């Protein structure tokens, strides 16, 4: 099935599917944000007394990129910068934007493609500092395109006409899967993307329910343990210096509490500096707040930690999002990324 656009361009069914998914994402972000704003209270604005630290709430999935946050708590890094941090690991990726905009949480992690889509929809999100980043090393990154070891598929191009799982159709995982196929000379429109949460990917691959999947750690290691093999490293295909996700807040919060935002960013950067020098402590910390075992944590590839959100990566991701029909116009990156 296909459709001809007003410009005469012929869109394949997969492109229409992506546009439909993008519309669902935009509607979800907008309606959930409105509902959350209508029910918001002032709890997130509460701060300690003048002689005590400022309390802030961070929202993120309980994945490896949180290890420096917990280490920063242990080492007194947040306290040094006048902050007392509470971590919310229950807020999902799709509800983090309305939670930030309604001030239920002060900062949250979001993949850069999702933030680009949100900004294009007029939502007041602003990336403050990276939360995770590609290692920049094909073959040694924390995300990969995988297939069953006995599938006979050895390159991303061979996934044309086949089914590939991503956790969300409109986020950076989908962009990475498509770009891995394109970079290998394949037609990404000929690949059928389906949504499967990362924790379910190892079983989906081993049971043959999908032909391939884009997956990140620790589920990448779990998939490999069940016989899956990486055939593509889409993060490095997307950009040389790829910011995968960012800690973000609202532009309104930045205007109202610039000193808190500065303190948060400085503390995160100090936490990253510590993490880069103490990888053994990072690996030891991961099993304490996730279901990742110490054995897996000792072997998994850890995300890169960067101090700056890559504007070059954001420009490329915005271009991919336009090309794939997720957005009609590119966002103003000055409005999206805190300088």
From TrEMBL:
Primary site of residence: periplasm
Organism field: Micromonospora endophytica
PANTHER family: ALIPHATIC SULFONATES-BINDING PROTEIN-RELATED (PTHR30024), TAURINE-BINDING PERIPLASMIC PROTEIN (PTHR30024:SF47)
Entry's localization field: Periplasm
UniProt cross-references to InterPro entries, sorted A to Z: Solute-binding_3/MltF_N, SsuA/THI5
UniProt record similarity statement: Belongs to the bacterial solute-binding protein SsuA/TauA family.
Keyword entries, A-Z: Signal
Recorded superkingdom: Bacteria
Protein name: Nitrate ABC transporter substrate-binding protein
């Amino acid at each position: 099935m296909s459709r001809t656009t007003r410009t005469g361009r012929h869109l394949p069914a997969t492109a229409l599917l992506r546009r439909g998914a993008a519309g669902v994402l935009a509607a979800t972000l907008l309606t959930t944000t409105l509902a959350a704003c209508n029910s918001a209270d002032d709890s997130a604005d509460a701060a300690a007394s003048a002689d005590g630290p400022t309390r802030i709430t961070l929202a993120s999935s309980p994945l490896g990129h949180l290890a420096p946050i917990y280490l920063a708590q242990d080492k007194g890094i947040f306290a040094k910068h006048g902050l007392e941090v509470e971590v919310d690991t229950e807020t999902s990726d799709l509800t983090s934007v309305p939670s930030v905009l309604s001030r239920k949480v002060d900062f949250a992690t979001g993949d850069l493609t999702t933030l680009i889509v949100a900004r294009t929809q007029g939502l007041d999100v602003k990336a403050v500092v990276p939360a995770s980043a590609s290692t920049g090393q094909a073959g040694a990154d924390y995300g990969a395109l995988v297939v069953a070891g006995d599938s006979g598929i050895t390159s991303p191009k061979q996934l044309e006409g086949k089914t590939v799982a991503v956790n969300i159709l409109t986020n950076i995982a989908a962009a990475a899967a498509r770009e891995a196929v394109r970079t290998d000379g394949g037609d990404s429109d000929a690949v059928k993307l389906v949504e499967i949460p990362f924790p379910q990917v190892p079983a989906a691959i081993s049971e043959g329910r999908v032909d391939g999947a884009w997956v990140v750690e620790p589920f990448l290691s779990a998939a490999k343990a069940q016989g899956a093999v990486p055939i593509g490293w889409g993060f490095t295909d997307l950009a040389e210096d790829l910011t995968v996700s960012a800690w973000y807040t609202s532009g309104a919060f930045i205007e109202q509490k610039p000193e808190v935002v500065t303190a948060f960013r400085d503390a995160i950067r100090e936490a990253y500096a510590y993490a880069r020098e103490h990888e053994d402590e990072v690996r030891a910390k991961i099993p304490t707040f996730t279901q990742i075992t110490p054995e897996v944590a000792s072997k998994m590839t850890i995300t890169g930690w960067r101090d700056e959100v890559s504007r070059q990566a954001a420009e490329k991701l915005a271009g991919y999002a336009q090309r794939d029909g997720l957005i009609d116009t590119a966002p103003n990156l000055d409005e999206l990324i805190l300088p």
